[in-house]
Specification:
This protein has three helices and no strands. By secondary structure, the protein is mostly helical. It has one domain: Non-ribosomal Peptide Synthetase Peptidyl Carrier Protein, Chain A (Orthogonal Bundle), CATH 1.10.1200.10.
Length: 85
């Protein structure tokens, strides 16, 4: 399993734990289709920031409304952190 798939699984697990909501597709919109509220989303985001030692730019959070988008951003930020001197 590659890093992107691992992060997607982590996100799905966090959402299920926080809300009891099972994401059926990686492109399912958290808010419109899965019923995730903004507070629960922020809790998931904070957990990801702690686990992966990253920091999301608050301006892009509204664009990270699917598991695929959020996971891709986690992987990108992790790669940047690892590449930094």
């Amino acid at each position: 399993m590659n890093q992107l798939d691992e992060v997607k699984r982590d996100i799905r697990d966090r959402i299920k734990l926080a809300l009891g909501v099972t994401l059926t597709q990686d492109e399912q919109d958290f808010f419109k289709e899965a019923g995730v509220d903004s507070l629960a989303f922020l809790n998931v985001v904070q957990g990801l920031e702690r686990k992966y030692a990253i920091k999301f730019d608050n301006d892009i959070l509204p664009d990270l409304s699917t598991c695929s988008r959020l996971a891709a951003n986690v992987v990108e930020l992790s790669a940047k952190r690892q590449a930094a001197p």
